[in-house]
Design a protein that fits this description.
The complex is a heterodimer. The mean pLDDT of chain A is about 90. Chain A has helices spanning about 40-45, 90-100, 105-115, 130-140, 160-175, 185-195, 210-215, 255-265, 280-290; strands spanning about 1-10, 15-25, 30-35, 55-60, 65, 75-80, 145-150, 180-185, 195-200, 205-210, 220-225, 240-245, 250-255, 270-275. Chain A has 2 domains: about 1-215, Rossmann fold; about 220-275, 2-Layer Sandwich (Alpha-Beta Plaits), CATH 3.30.70. Chain A is built from 9 helices and 14 strands. Chain A is α/β, with parallel strands linked by helices. By secondary structure, chain B is of the alpha+beta class. Chain B has a domain at about 345-585. Chain B is built from 22 helices and 11 strands. In chain B, a hairpin with a 4-residue loop joins strand 3 and strand 4 (about 435-440). Mean pLDDT of chain B is about 85; it is low at about 1-5. The chains are: A alpha/beta, B alpha+beta. The interface of A and B includes residues 11, 42 and 76 of A.
Chain lengths: ~300, ~600
């Protein structure tokens, strides 16, 4: 398990990471989501020891990860803003990285090159953005790391390639006990593959939970009643958000939905009541709205 | 969790070396074409091309170092390499080793060119300097790249760090020049010379001392210490590096301020070297103004903002306070000795004149046994024309003059012979120590010249002075013919005169007569004492200027032997036959 505990970092006078703690289990895909500039990339760079934290620690299986520790050599990071050495082809890059990653698999490399249909002898810096992402992903999977950090990996990829990415990733996580942390803006994509999610905002983790549990905790109902619904009478159900569109009331709440319905029926003649499923994107917007993000008035 | 160690250093080193083959190839072509092919085609002097080739080696190695370490100056490059299992320490070490191999290879090409063209192997003497400079340059380029967030700045910082010992020298000199202006008698040059010779051995730091010396253990030890020191700094700085500042000019705030403070001191220090200012208050004000302006420009450039932060201002104020405190403490210490004039009975030898560098010459003679022997004094006199007074009476006169200068350092020099007149007084004490003072003499029309002229006259008219300054005339041993050969040559307007018959003994007697008469005069003696060779400064003369060269050959000290015969290196003394040498001129029948 990869644990980040109470990690803090200031850039000059600006607090970029504020007491961050996350826990990513082995054989899990952890989704790191957050507002723009909330510190996702900075957090990943701290995990990779690219940046030094002011406070806090990072552990892998309860062993503290340090710059010179052996375990960090089994972490692989694919950054958003990709870099490849000058005039390198994918084949050459494989030869180079093979010197460093002891588990680098030639078979897996060949298999993935073929699966993604990449020209391994083409100059990497002359490839399109999507092709470069695929090349980086192929290298990452071929390295068979224990921890894989993917920063905006599917950004700019078409739906077919995205699907291929997730197929490969899920298979690897299941087969090789890999811990994967993905940061992404594409919440719909993460919704389908993440086991656990950490929601970041302004350098803090607002919420970290199993995605299913998170969905269980935050619910949305839509209903219509005879008479005027007053949200203040239903405070005990922890209503996070209330919207009325025409005669339809929509509530996002963390309280018990069945008890909410019972109380509603006691007070009103309920004309309509539907329990809606929440997507990760909706949870994200709700959580960040609670933190005051995106609720500013025009 | 048990981890299997994966030794990646050697494979990566070999891989990187292999990747460098294009640079090796290109550099080989450049060096061989410029040092071998072009001089061969042109059939011109090859040494010049070898020197150019060495310059090319420096440039090629410098560029390679910067290119190799440039991954530290780009966010995505740095993130890529830093996220790999090879640590930054390993990657920088690999770059250093590869560049050392690259530099050694290029030097080997230069050696091949020298051998192929059969150039004098003495050119390899320069390798004693080139090798440490190249090695230190490679290590410093790595260190500067770690400290900087931008490749161009890393290049500038490499030069800055390389020049740092010299810059510190300049700043200390600046401190001493302030001291010189504030405490009469203390010379910045003398103090700096003492400091450099005893504490801050700059010529060893830059290995220039070995230009005229054989390599010794110290050479290798020093090179080792420098390279190990820089390596430890690289490793320390890598650990502390703020990678989030990549892209800034300098990634460490501390180093940024260090560079800014040092740079802001360079400008007034350099200005103090090239300018001469009598008013210490205005001088300090101008220096502070220049320092503040330089600091602001550098900080504004580094922080990319015209608005200077409070922290930057605090750093400047504190740095200046430290500099002023350090300079002030040297002034306070020196002030305690400002009015010290030794008792004549404690002095073994005394010098008064205008040779501020004399102490260097004296020091060379006392280095062997720590003593200034009679032989040393004699050799100093013959080699440098130095008059070191040993008579108690003359030593007392020197201390009298010293006291007089301390009470009044003005002298009216009507014809303004000097731009910056000075007088140096050196005492060699009986306990082996030295007291060295240098005084500026201000040309003041209200000055009382009489006392200074009278004291100077006592010295110039003393028998000891005459015998030591004109020993080749007064000492009989030069005329016995046993050990020395003496000859006179007469010159006028730069042409040797062959028409005048020169009778050595006759000329000698007339010269002695003129010198005795001249020494009897009392006016302008202080001016003479503080002038070159104790002659009156140059003055316009209407008639033909005649000079007598006196060639002295020591028959017991041949310079070298040629075909079994001794070849002598004669010492030449020149006397300007001005209007004071009436008797000699008349004797030689000169107009």
């Amino acid at each position: 398990m990869l644990k980040v505990e109470n990690l803090s970092k200031k850039f000059g006078g600006f607090q970029v990471l504020n007491n961050i703690s996350i826990h990513a289990e082995t054989s899990q895909i952890y989704g790191l989501v957050g507002s723009n500039g909330c510190g996702k990339t900075t957090l990943l760079k701290h995990i990779m020891m690219i940046f030094n934290q002011d406070d806090g620690s990072i552990f892998y299986d309860d062993i503290q990860v340090r710059e010179d520790s052996e375990i960090i050599k089994e972490f692989y990071y694919v950054q958003d803003n990709l870099f490849f050495p000058y005039q390198y082809t994918l084949s050459k890059l494989f030869s180079y990285e093979k010197l460093m990653y002891k588990n680098m698999s030639e078979d897996k490399f060949s298999e993935l090159v073929s699966y993604f249909n990449i020209d391994k002898n083409k100059n990497l810096n002359k490839m399109s953005k999507g092709q470069r992402k695929q090349a980086a992903f192929v290298m990452a999977i071929s390295a068979q790391p224990k921890v894989l950090l993917l920063d905006e990996i599917v950004d700019g990829l078409d739906a077919v390639i995205k699907r291929k990415f997730w197929d490969v990733l899920i298979r690897e996580v299941m087969d090789n006990e890999m811990t994967v942390i993905i940061s992404s803006h594409d919440l719909k994509e993460l919704d389908n593959i993440c086991d656990k999610v950490g929601i970041m905002h302004e350098g803090r983790i607002l919420k970290e939970e199993n995605l299913e549990k998170m969905k269980d905790e935050i619910k949305r109902v839509q209903f219509a009643v005879e008479g005027e619904f007053d949200v203040s009478e239903f405070k005990e159900f922890s209503i996070i958000k209330y919207v009325k569109i025409g005669s339809i009331n929509i509530c996002t709440l963390t309280g018990n939905v069945d008890e909410f319905r019972n109380k509603l029926e006691e007070r009103f003649n309920v004309l309509l009541f539907d329990k809606l499923s929440m997507s990760l994107e909706e949870i994200f917007i709700t959580e960040l709205g609670g933190a005051g993000y995106g609720t500013e008035k025009k | 969790m048990e981890q299997k160690k994966n030794n990646i250093f050697m494979p990566l080193l070999l891989y990187s070396l292999k990747n460098k083959r294009n640079w090796f190839l290109l550099s080989t072509v450049i060096i061989l074409v410029t040092t071998m092919l072009i001089p061969f085609i042109l059939r011109v002097e090859e040494e010049l091309f070898i020197a150019f080739g060495i310059f090319e080696v420096f440039v090629l190695v410098f560029i390679n170092c910067l290119v190799d370490n440039s991954f530290l100056h780009n966010d995505s490059k740095l993130a890529y390499y830093k996220s790999k299992p090879a640590t930054l320490r390993q990657q920088i070490s690999i770059n250093i080793i590869i560049n050392v191999i690259f530099a050694a290879y290029l030097l080997l090409l230069i050696v091949l060119s020298v051998v192929f063209q059969k150039i004098d192997y003495e050119i390899f003497e320069s390798f004693k300097l080139i090798i440490p400079w190249l090695s230190a340059g490679i290590f410093l380029a790595a260190l500067s790249s770690v400290l900087s967030g931008n490749t161009l700045i890393a290049g500038v910082m490499t030069i800055f760090n390389f020049a740092l010992p010299a810059i510190i020298y300049l700043i200390i000199q600046f401190m001493f020049s302030i001291l010189e202006n504030m405490v009469a008698g203390f010379s910045a040059n003398v103090l700096m010379d003492y400091f450099v010779n005893n504490f801050y051995k700059l010529e060893y730091i830059y290995f220039s001392a070995y230009q005229n010396m054989d390599l010794d253990f110290i050479y290798f030890l020093l090179l080792g210490v420098i390279l190990v020191g820089i390596t430890l700094l690289i490793f320390k700085m890598l650990k502390k590096r703020k990678n989030e500042n990549t892209g800034s000019f300098i990634v460490f705030d501390g180093y940024k301020y260090f560079v800014s403070v040092i740079a802001c001191l360079i400008v007034p220090a350099a200005f103090s070297v090239v300018s001469y200012n009598n008013n210490i208050v205005s001088g300090i004000f101008v220096s502070l103004l220049m320092a503040a302006l330089t600091y602001y420009i550098i900080i504004a450039a580094m922080e990319r903002s015209f608005r200077i932060s409070n922290l930057s201002m605090k750093v400047f104020v504190i740095s200046m306070a430290v500099f002023v405190a350090m300079t002030g403490s040297t002034v306070v210490i020196a002030s305690r000795y400002k009015n010290v004039v030794p008792a004549a009975e404690d002095v073994r030898v005394a010098y008064v004149g205008n040779d501020g560098w004399l102490y260097n010459s004296i020091k060379r003679y006392i280095e062997d046994d720590g003593q200034l022997s009679e032989d040393d004094i004699s050799v100093l006199r013959e080699n440098y024309g130095t008059v070191l007074f040993t008579d108690r009476e003359n030593i007392e006169t020197v201390t009298d003059l010293h006291k007089e200068i301390l009470s009044d350092n003005n002298y009216y020099d009507e014809k303004e012979y000097y731009y910056s007149p000075q007088i140096d007084i050196i005492y060699g004490m009986k306990d082996g120590s030295f007291i060295i003072r240098e005084y500026r003499i201000y040309n003041n029309s209200g000055a009382d010249n009489a006392t200074k002229d009278e004291i100077a006259h006592r010295l110039l008219n003393s028998q000891e002075f005459k015998e030591k300054n004109y020993y080749y005339l007064y000492d009989e041993k030069y005329y016995s013919g046993n050990d020395y050969l003496l000859s006179f040559r007469l010159w006028y307007n730069g042409i040797e005169s062959a028409s005048v018959e020169l009778n050595t003994e006759g000329i000698r007697q007339h010269l002695i007569k003129d010198i005795d008469e001249k020494s009897g005069k009392t006016d302008n003696n202080f001016l003479r004492l503080s002038s070159y060779n104790y002659d009156m400064p140059y003055k316009e003369y209407d008639g033909i200027m005649y000079y007598l060269d006196i060639d002295v050959i020591d028959k017991n000290r041949p310079d070298y032997y040629e075909g079994g015969k001794p070849v002598y290196n004669d010492k030449v003394y020149t006397i300007e036959l001005d209007e004071d040498f009436k008797n000699t001129r008349k004797y030689l029948n000169l107009k």
